[in-house]
Amino acid sequence: MNMQRKVLEEILDNILRNLKKAGFVVENINYPENKRSIDIIGLYNNSHIMIKVTIDATHVSDIEVSDLKKASQAYNASSIVVSRKYRKKEIDPEVVYRRKGINVVNEELLEKYIIKNEKPLIYEAQGNFLVRINPQKFREKRLELGLSLGELADKIGVTRKAIYNYEHGKISVTVNTAVKIAEIMGMDVFEPVDLFKPEKIEIKEEFSPRNKIEELLYRACNLKGLKLYKLLRTPIDYVLKGARNTVSVINYRKDPEKIRVKIEEATRIARITGSKEMIIRGLDDVKEIKKYLEETLF
């Protein structure tokens, strides 16, 4: 076993152990063998989480990021990357980083979050370290202190307009400004980063059918008003999502050993997400999926 594989397995073991300790039902996903988009999927109190594990988050590919985003939307899950480095530097255990819209943390921060319920305050954006303001609590504290917008601005060393923006949730503050605010107003006026709260993630690419099977799936989903997601590096190939139900579709592969492993791993995802698992071996199976969609309330 090479050193990189050993480190990855160490990180995986730590995450799995802590998630189980916190009460999560978890599955370790092992398909495809290399360059997969999802390593861990978990469930706790009807909330789903999907985790990609790596040593340096810089090396998480655009395809893997896209899969994480689409899987998050398809299964109403939160998605994070757990890594020890980002941009070749050690990840600060107090900071949440972002990789093309996905939260990136190290295992120490994740452990504190799930075991001790310590939610991080600082996040990194375009090289800046920022803290979010809770607009309502900020305004309530200002009024409690009997300060006008201008008076509070003078004490913090910002403009009156900045205070107005804080109270309307329009901007975050730098760590230096956050320290000044905390000295005057306390820590309760800040909004922690909730790693397990699904965020609205922008997905730019539209589904475009590339073969007969995809064309039939696309038409079937349109007829039922369902969303169709295509995943590239997970055991699930397509997800058909409605308001009430979700279908996880596996595209059959000829290699008997690989398809066996793929179906086993896909079943783990379907079980955790509570989705219906269906397999496509040919066009007849697509017709069966269409029939299921017609008979099921979505």
Provide a concise account of the structure shown:
This protein is of the alpha+beta class. The protein has helices at 3-21, 62-75, 107-115, 135-145, 149-156, 160-167, 175-185, 212-224, 256-273, 283-295; strands at 25-28, 40-44, 47-53, 77-82, 85-86, 89-90, 95-99, 102-105, 122-125, 128-133, 173-174, 190-191, 227-230, 238-241, 246-251, 276-280.
Describe the protein's architecture and organization.
- With 298 residues, the chain is an alpha+beta fold.
- It folds into three domains: 3-120, 3-Layer(aba) Sandwich (Trna Endonuclease, Chain: A, domain 1); 133-191, lambda repressor-like DNA-binding domains (434 Repressor (Amino-terminal Domain), Orthogonal Bundle); 212-295, Trna Endonuclease, Chain: A, domain 1 (3-Layer(aba) Sandwich).
- 42% of the residues lie in helices and 23% in strands.
- The protein is built from ten helices and 16 strands.
- The strands form three sheets. Strands 1, 2, 3, 4, 7, 8, 9, 10, 11 and 12 form a ten-stranded mixed sheet that branches. Strands 13-14-15-16 form a four-stranded mixed sheet, sandwiched between helices. The chain has a two-stranded antiparallel sheet with strand order 5-6.
- The longest helix is centred in the N-terminal third of the chain and has 19 residues, at 3-21.
- The radius of gyration is 22 Å and the shape is elongated.
